[in-house]
Structure formats: structure tokens, C-alpha cells
Amino acid sequence: MSHQQTTTKSTAVSISPDQLASLLNGPDKLLLIDVRSPQEFGEAHIPAALNIPLPDLTPERIEADRLPNQRLAVVCQG
Fold first, then answer.
1. ∠ at Cα 72 (39, 61), nearest 5°?
2. What is the CA radius of gyration of the chain?
3. What would the pLDDT profile of 20-42 be if each residue is shown by its tens digit?
4. How would you class 52 by CB atoms within 10 Å of its CB: exposed for 0-12, middle for 13-18, buried for 19 or more?
5. Are 33 and 50 in contact (CB under 8 A)?
């Protein structure tokens, strides 16, 4: 019996705050993950963001919150 693996190609790019705002206000639902600590997230964050601290960020964790074919943006301390 042969097993076939399915891979998803992803590309990471840096975008400006204005580009992010445009994506968040666009017609497609964007999953926005803030990878800062809960303390930093609590001090200030983008309202639509989901806080998943970087040490907890795994593909399985992302997929648990992600809709099929949903675009993903990650925010960290700049």
C-alpha cells in the first residue's frame, strides 16, 4: 500500500500596516495570529488578532483555528 503526501506551498512576505488593514477589511476572512506573550498582547493588540505565543505556535494549533484555504497573517514585535 502506498501513502501519498499532500503538501501545501506557502509563501511568507512582509507587509505594511496599511496592507494588513486592507486585508482585514477585505472580503476574505484573514486569520491574524499575534505571537507575542500574553502580557504584551494584553497591553495592546489588533482587535481581530488571536494570541498564540510563539512557543505554542505549531501547525496543528494554527489549523485548529483556520478555515479551509484561509489566508494567514502573523504579527510579532517589530
1. 60
2. 14
3. 999 998 888 899 999 999 999 99
4. buried
5. yes
45 pLDDT exceeds 90?
A: yes
Give the predicted TM-score (pTM) of the model.
Answer: 0.79
Residues 6+ apart with CB under 8 A from 32: 20, 24, 46, 48, 49, 50, 73, 74, 75
State the pLDDT confidence band at 74, using cuts at 50, 70 and 90.
very high
Among 13, 12, 19, 49, smallest CA distance to 34 is for 49
Rounded Cα distance, 10 and 16, in Å: 19
